[in-house]
Amino acid sequence: MTASDSATYEWTVSGMDCASCASKVRGAVERLPGVSDVDVALMTERLRLTLDEGQTPRDQIEAIVKRLGYGIAAKGSSPDRKRFVLPEGEQASRADRSRDGAGLEPDTASTEPETGPAPGSRWYRTAKGRLVIGTGLLLTAAWAVKLLASQDVATWAFVLATLIGVAPIARRAVASARAGMPFTIEMLMTIAATGALVINAAEEAALVVFLFAVGEVLEGVAANKARDGIRALARLVPKTALLEIGGRTRVMPADQLQVDQIVLVRPGDRVPADGEVIEGTSGVDESAVTGESVPKLKEPGSPVFAGSINSEAALRVRVTKSAEDNTIARIIRLVEEAESARAPTERFIDRFSRIYMPAVVGVAVLVAIIPPLAFAQAWDTWIYRALALLLIGCPCALVISVPASIASALSSGARRGLLMKGGAVIEAAAAITHVAFDKTGTLTRGRPRVTDVVPISGSETEVLALAAAVEAGSSHPLAEAILARAEAAEIAPLVASAAKTLPGRGAEAVVEGDQAWVGSPRFAEEHGVLDGSARRRAASLEDEGKTVVAVFRRSELVGLIALRDEPREDAARAVQQLKALGVSSVMLTGDNRRTAAAISDGLGIEYRAELMPEDKVAAIREMAAKGQVMMVGDGINDAPALASANIGVAMGSGTDVALETADAAILRNRVTDVAGKIRLSRATMANIRQNVVIALGLKAVFLVTTILGITGLWIAILGDTGATVLVTLNALRLLAFDPEET
Q: Is the pTM of this model over 0.90?
């Protein structure tokens, strides 16, 4: 198969309630010719794979999944740029999204399959819910016959109830076996129920079938509860927007807004798209997006995020991102993709479960035949116990113990502006021993201002004009501060060309035909333009905690500019919280030692100063030799260091870099969220350990009690189902976990 023959396709698969469901879907499709890179996400109900349709058509994929008992609906190809579709109620709501309805067409990608219920459906409307009701009625009817008729008639009533109830389960078992997966809970359930009939335990067989159906429904309810966090994010984006055209407004679907269109956001309305305020001043509640509870003042030029609430006055907003690329959509996409980045613990348990189930089946066979053959025990007794062991052999609770906790943690973190790309990141964050911070924009506000302009060979105006020419177009915080000061002084920058940044040194450009630089005093000294007097003046400014840059040409120093960037209000508190967690912290900066010392003294943090990008990487590697390192930076200027750390965390309110580059992101720009991220990760790992103990502990207890004859079939299935439900409910506790609690 060549790359040109294959493409990536994605489906929504409904009805998956536990990790073994996802394993069955994965196992069934990955055996097909032309199928590769199979990814099944339980919590987001996604199936994605690479397929050569010349070998296996898409229809065959869908048919196999349906035979396994799950609903499937195509979401289309190109999942990396897939259209953003709300996961529930989409089709029903399209008709009333817009008063004029112009240009609306059905979106087949959001159509639910007939075989699977829509997300959020009532349990009794699902196929598994109907099975519970049906088996329950059959069991009740059989008990009624037992009370009103003879035992022989009642026995046949229980046999009939068992056969009718187990039929759909058996169909799924056969479908899984044909797909190469004989060891499934459906197969074990079918064998157990049939075996119980053979040994004349029809009443217990009917009860076991009913309890199995109840357990599946409970698993589905618990799984849907875990998915609610992701669905709630999707519901934050309003379905309609007030589009301005020619001075008039009209209602249109928010997911059809185009970049550069203008929308009106009235007080109390949710912002329909990521954009920039062009008119109006108002407080905007961004808690739904960033978790920050205090409304932010928005004025012309300020960015706004889809899903945030305008609380005071009308705003006119220019759309800057299409619906599939807005902040909420990208957060959802990140949470969805995070399921694929499985934690090492999850991968180990997955491998263990593949051995565990066949091993239990082997033990059950031995239990059934050894006592009767070797010790002349009763066949009925030991076959009965072996059948109970088969039901205990299902590893559902064990397999779901990790993904359920990870999904809850990802959802809980996303609601609070703490994004992590999967279980591997969560597990690594829980083990962090060192945190390295960038200074500018991370520990400090990232909005320095010019405090001093010191002319050396020219006037203050000449210094600012030359510096503004070199820094024109740069997005570095220091450059923006210099440009802002020049603009405030109404100084027009000189004409410049060939501008470029010099990482760790500064910037250069050709200004009026001559090379010019804005850089650190050390960089100026390397060029031989910094004399003793200028050096002393720069040192004096640095002693005041200011950052000093030199503005110079090839042969002369034009002047010095001093800037100050104040620490964030919560930076010192964040350092103390990390210390309380047993995590050491250090500030890595390219700034001079005097400025770094002034900042670090106020924060109570160690520092390393005058670092080039490669020096930061070396510092990270040095710390990594002693433990697990987290690097926290702005996600733009610290890419090498972020990549070198065990975990790279980008700070930034919904920027592309913050959401799509580093291993994790902090949307609220709060330094204390670094400690919160570690607390959430540690709580998640503790939750996983609790789940594993619950799953294996209950299994161990019932294995022993079943062999000893203390517990029987219906207790076995109740124990298996109970373990799965307990594990899932325990994982759901993470949805309410508050990472800010110290």
A: no
Calculate the CA 679 to chain-centre distance. 17
Task: State the DSSP string of 274-340.
Answer: SEEEEE--EEEE-HHHH---SPEEE-TT-EE-TT-EE-SS-EEEEE-S-GGGSHHHHHHHHHHHHTT
* Closest residue by Cα to residue 587 from 606, 613, 615: 606
* Alpha-carbon gap, residue 640 to 419, rounded angstroms: 20
282-285 and 664-666: which strand pairing? unpaired
Q: Give the pLDDT confidence of 361-392 residue by residue, as tens digits.
A: 888 889 889 999 998 888 888 888 888 887 77
**Options 3.30.1490.20, 3.30.420.40, 3.40.1650.10, 3.40.1110.10; CATH of 449-564:** 3.40.1110.10
Looking at the chain, which residues constitute the CATH 3.40.50.1000 domain(s)?
426-444+567-681
Q: pLDDT tens for residues 679-725?
A: 999 999 999 999 989 988 888 888 888 888 887 777 777 777 778 78
Active-site residue set: 438
Q: Are 468 and 663 in contact (CB under 8 A)?
A: no
Q: How far apart are CA 531 and CA 270, in angstroms?
A: 58
CATH number of the domain at 240-325, out of 3.30.930.10, 3.30.420.40, 2.70.150.10, 2.30.30.100?
2.70.150.10
Cβ-based neighbours of 494, under 8 Å, separated by 6 or more = 465, 466, 468, 469, 511, 512
Query: How many helices (H) does the chain have, and how many strands (E)?
Result: 24, 26
Find all residues with CB under 8 Å of 723, minimum gap 6, and list them. 396, 397, 694, 695, 698, 699
DSSP H helical ranges for 437-548: 460-471, 477-488, 521-526, 532-543
Least confident of 29-33, 100-104, 190-194, 496-500: 100-104
Instruction: Please give the Cα distance from 81 to 189 (Å, whole number).
Output: 42
Phi-psi region of 351 (alpha: psi -120 to 50; beta: other; left: phi over 0): alpha
What architecture is domain 426-444+567-681?
3-Layer(aba) Sandwich (3.40)
Mean of the pLDDT values across residues 730-741? 86
Task: Mark 101-124 as b/e (b = at least 16 C-beta within 10 Å).
Answer: eeeeeeeebbebbebbbbbebebe
Token representation of residue 477: 């915080």
The 3-state DSSP class for residue 36 equals: strand
CA 303/CA 671 separation, integer angstroms: 21
Go through the chain and tell me how many residues it has. 742
Which ranges in the chain are annotated with CATH 3.40.1110.10?
Answer: 449-564
Which percentage of the chain shows pLDDT scores above 90?
Answer: 22
H runs (alpha helix) in 199-249: 202-235
Q: Which residues of the chain are in CATH 2.70.150.10 domains? A: 240-325
* 183-208 tens-digit pLDDT: 777 887 888 888 888 888 888 888 88
Answer for the pair 191, 386: CB distance below 8 angstroms, yes or no.
no
